[in-house]
Amino acid sequence: MTKPMKIDFVSDVSCPWCVVGLGGLEEALRKVGDLVQADIHFQPFELNPNMPPEGQNIVEHVGQKYGATPEQSAANRAAIHARAADVGFTMVTNDQSRIYNTFDAHRLLHWAGIVGGQAKLKRALFDAYFTNGQNPADHDVLVATAQAAGLDEAAAREVLTSGRYTEEVRAAEHRWQAAGINSVPAVVINDRYLISGGQPAAAFEQALRTIAAEEESAAAEG
């Protein structure tokens, strides 16, 4: 029997492990087939909420935040690029790449969750930043990305210039933080089950099958 599952994917558009995690989740959903009917909602999380619009060099940022040397930073990027390639995603970040503020991207994603097309916009934002090296804090980039995802260009620009959904996104960020989410990706299923990190497809598949079985058993007992 098909089990409906609400899946909240808490992530940031500049988080490389979120790309890996989303790819693993999507592959797992394909593998479980009709067992699960997924309703995915992309939820906001900012890794660097205080980042200025011009951003910061990625090597400098990782060194300051995590204490990584340039060599360690390059090795970590190579490992993440390989994991991303495993799920069919191309990353081209290098030691000249920059980390940017992503709050406006989350406002646009919130809007897309209302009008439809949120999943396409999420993937397009990942492409814009990780594959094309674009700035997700730049409104022109965001509008073009929304258009590429099939969303209305004028409506997207109006959302960005008006400041709409600022309060809603802030409230959602605070709600997830209050729930104990302090790193991403965090995948929350049916408001009860948490899967943390950029897990491979096999791990997501096992979790989905286990949750489906538990909920089937609970329904039978109830």
Q: Largest beta sheet, briefly?
A: 4 strands, mixed
How is the largest sheet built, in terms of strand order? 2-1-5-6
CATH class of the largest domain: Alpha Beta
Q: Can you say what the CATH homologous superfamily of the largest domain is?
A: Glutaredoxin
| Strand and helix order | EHEEHHEHHHHHEEH
Computed Rg: 18 Å
Q: Which fold name corresponds to the CATH topology of the largest domain?
A: Glutaredoxin
* Overall number of structural domains: 2
* Name of the CATH architecture of the largest domain: 3-Layer(aba) Sandwich
Q: What's the number of extended β-strand segments?
A: 6
Distance between the termini: 16 Å
Report helical residue fraction: 55-70%
Note poorly predicted spans: none
What gross morphology would you assign? Answer: globular
Q: Approximately what portion of the residues adopt beta-strand conformation?
A: 5-15%
Computed structural class: alpha+beta
Mean pLDDT equals 96
